[in-house]
Design a protein that fits this description.
The complex is a heterodimer of chains A (291) and B (398). Chain A is mainly α and 291 residues long. Chain A has helices at 2-33, 40-56, 62-85, 94-115, 140-162, 164-174, 176-181, 186-212, 222-232, 237-257, 263-277; strands at residues 131-133, 136-138. Chain A has a single domain (2-277), classed as Orthogonal Bundle (ABC transporter involved in vitamin B12 uptake, BtuC). The relative contact order of chain A is 0.20. In chain B, 44% of the residues lie in helices and 16% in strands. Chain B contains 13 helices and 13 strands.
Chain lengths: 291, 398
């Protein structure tokens, strides 16, 4: 039935935009610092808990609570970079990656101790009442996730492609020594990336958490973000978005037309197929390093 | 003809039984003239911390109250808490620490199936009385183990049976869909529901599954819509179950939703939102923690005063309530065991409990061959204002 197929495409795209938001954050950190941030999901979680804390215990309305959450998350990114990543900057790349795992676990258990293990309700940004058009349910709050993913991707794309600071970040990441020679301080740009990605994590979390419910373990959904990032090439922001949405749609179609038990098997088989056939993902050019 | 080998085998077995019995009888480890030392084992961190923190809070509150009232037969309770960190190896290490180093008399916990089931062999080979107030794996009490008791909670086998009996009684189309989590929790629950429905007969059963970390359930829900079921049983953790229930309403599924006890938490309706209205959940007790019976009000006020940081998280919850009920039941066992306290005496005293009431959870009955204290459940419903009400009929798994 056509309406069922369209419903699956729509729902898959919305689930995929959750993965895309996560993938964008992962790609941003990876592009800007060379580190794969396994604590990204937990940074996302912290951002939403700050929102809940600001609303429930400080009595703030939703807009200022969101602002507080985004700013405090940015400061968290600054702290991570200044206190952990900066001292580890000259160590083998595996060390900072392991550090991100440790930071994630510390944030998760810290929040669990302070806010408890129970789920907290998070307010939806838009209505959850569906509009029904030709047998298809369209939920405004779900569309907010898709819209946020596209807007963030567009903003970051413009930032990196068309602003001097964005170009400086990319240059510093590609060649820190060369960038330093031409006056781009690698440390400052790396700090900027950590702050930016942490703020992005908060925004992503605030959009996603009403759908998924908020617990200290919400960050575990970042695993799907990793899959989406790999599908998109792990270095490409448009690739992260398309990879995420594609993964969501594949899951939805496989779950309906094959079996819900086979959904993940089919999705990850396709993912492995892409990695084998296109090692750089769907959207990433193979980089050639001249020596 | 009886062989020499068979005689030796029987004699050996009898000697082990006698030795074990005498070990229990003589064993007053952890008991002094003025104190009884209890170990509290539970997941205070990790994914199962909800139950472990409840176990600690409910136990602490009941133990402090009995101490303030003068203790048990002239002795005060002393307790030590160990965090099993939602991890089976940590749980085993914690159990051994409580038994071998801390020399406790009895243990209150563990608190999750993920820790308790791998710990079962270690627990059953010890002589320490173990009292479990929360988790739901049927393997813990079936077959019964001499030193392991459980109160309050409804085990997964009984819960599956009760859910099946309930949905069979309300399904007009005789068609039930089971939407279950893909892990052991969901698989066992769905198997128990499905088996009982097959026993009842004349009911079409369809089944879909999901992962605990999934965020979209459209494909499963559309398949259920086509199955023509008028009941959907959701057997999963609270977070994915909340999304399933919300999306089912948004997709306009014409089904009555019935969740497992995992969806019977106090904050669940607020987590789902207005789509929770009309959904039903299985619950282990007729007493809700936000209820107004005198015992519940007294418990809630005492809990909120003692644990303001937990009250801030909209607790007490069912887990706190079950732990408090369990601790009071254990205390009753210790009281009935008398001043001449030893492990055999406590086990005998617990076995003698019949319909022991606390007014906090369902009455507890144990026996020489019964270690599952509660075998009944209720159904609760979310009302228009997102408050909860327990439907009057009790369902028994016996």
């Amino acid at each position: 039935m056509v309406s069922t197929f369209i419903q699956l495409l729509l729902s898959g795209a919305i689930a995929g935009s959750v993965y895309a938001l996560l993938a964008i954050g992962l790609v941003l950190i990876h592009n800007g610092t060379g580190v794969v941030n396994f604590g990204f999901g937990d940074q996302l979680m912290v951002g939403v808990y700050i929102l809940v804390f600001a609303q429930q215990f400080l009595g703030l309305a939703l807009p200022p609570a969101i602002l507080v959450a985004v700013i405090v998350s940015g400061l968290l990114g600054l702290a991570i970079q200044s206190l952990v990543m900066m001292p580890l900057r000259n160590r083998p790349v595996l060390i900072p990656i392991v550090a991100t795992i440790a930071i994630g676990a510390a944030l998760r258990e810290g929040v669990r101790a302070f806010m408890g293990p129970n789920p907290w309700p998070v307010p939806f940004l838009l209505s959850t009442s569906p509009y029904r058009i030709g047998g298809i349910s369209i939920v405004p709050s779900d569309l907010a996730i898709l819209g946020t993913a596209i807007v963030i991707m567009a903003c970051l794309y413009v930032f990196f492609e068309f602003t001097r600071y964005g170009q400086a970040i990319l240059a510093a990441c590609a060649n820190p020594t060369g960038a330093l020679i031409v006056g781009i301080p690698a440390g400052t740009t790396t700090t900027g990336i950590w702050v930016l990605s942490s703020m992005l994590a908060a925004i992503a979390g605030i959009v996603i958490a009403p759908l998924t419910t908020l617990t200290p373990d919400i960050g575990l959904i970042a695993i799907k973000g990793f899959a989406a990032a790999v599908l998109g090439g792990f270095a490409s922001l448009p690739g992260a978005v398309v990879g995420g949405i594609l993964l969501g749609i594949i899951e939805a179609l496989a779950g309906y037309y094959i079996s819900s038990a086979m959904k993940d098997i089919v999705s990850y088989a396709i993912l492995i197929g892409v990695i084998v056939l296109l090692p750089s993902g769907l959207f990433n050019r193979v980089s050639v390093r001249k020596v | 003809m009886v062989t020499r080998r068979e005689i030796l085998k029987v004699a050996g077995g009898a000697m082990v039984l006698v030795a074990t019995k005498s070990a229990y009888a003589a064993d007053a480890t952890g008991v002094t003239d003025d104190k009884i030392k209890i170990g509290i084992l539970g997941d205070l961190t990790g994914h199962a911390a909800h139950w472990g923190t409840g176990n600690l809070a409910g136990g602490t509150l009941a133990f402090e109250e009995i101490n303030a009232a003068g203790g048990i037969n002239g002795r005060k309770l002393e307790w030590i808490s160990v965090d099993s960190e939602s991890s089976a190896p940590k749980g085993i290490a914690g159990f051994k620490r409580l038994v071998d180093q801390e020399k406790v008399f009895a243990i209150f916990g563990p608190t999750s199936s993920a820790v308790g089931v791998p710990l079962l062999k270690t627990m059953s080979s010890s002589s320490v009385p173990i009292f479990i107030p929360t988790f739901s794996s049927p393997l813990i009490t079936n077959p019964p183990v001499k030193n392991i008791f459980r109160s309050g909670t409804l085990n997964d086998a009984d819960q599956g049976r009760i859910i099946a009996d309930y949905v069979a009684s309300i399904s007009k189309k005789h068609s039930v869909a089971i939407m279950r989590q893909s892990d052991e929790y969901g698989k066992n629950g769905a198997t128990n529901v499905g088996n009982r429905l097959k026993e009842i007969g004349n009911i079409k059963i369809s089944e879909e599954q999901f992962n605990a970390s999934d965020t979209d359930f459209t494909s499963q829900l559309l398949r259920i819509r086509e199955s023509d079921a008028d009941i959907m049983v959701v057997y999963g953790y609270p977070a994915p179950s909340a999304i399933v229930m919300r999306q089912a309403k948004q997709l306009g599924l014409p089904v009555q939703i019935v969740g497992s006890t995992a969806t019977a938490s106090r904050t669940y309706a607020a987590t789902v939102g207005k789509e929770a209205v009309g959904t039903r959940s299985m619950t282990t007790t007729r007493y809700l923690p936000e209820g107004d019976s005198p015992e519940i009000v007294k418990f809630r006020k005492a809990f909120e005063a003692r644990f303001p940081e937990l009250a801030r998280q909209t607790r007490p919850e069912a887990t706190d309530q079950l732990a408090y009920h369990g601790a009071k039941t254990l205390i009753e066992g210790l009281r009935r065991a008398g001043r001449d306290l030893n492990r055999e005496g406590l086990i005998k005293a617990l076995e003698g409990l019949k319909d022991f009431e606390t007014g906090i959870a369902e009455p507890t009955t144990f026996g020489p061959d019964r270690r599952e204290g509660n075998r009944s459940g209720f159904v609760l419903e979310i009302k228009e204002d997102l408050s909860r009400t327990v439907l009057p009929k009790a369902y028994s798994a016996i």
